[in-house]
Amino acid sequence: MDWGSLYRDLITLFVVIDPIGTIPIFIAVTAGMAPENRPKVALIGVLIAAIVLYTFLILGQLVFEALGLALGSFQIAGGIILFLFALQMIFGPSKPEEELNQAKSISQSAVFPLAMPSIASPGAIMTVIILTDNHGHSVLEQTATAGLLLGVLVFTFVLLLLANPILKLIGTSGASVISRVMGMILSTVAVDAILNGFAVLNVIDLNH
Question: Could you confirm whether the keyword Cell inner membrane appears in this record (predicted)?
Answer without folding.
Answer: no
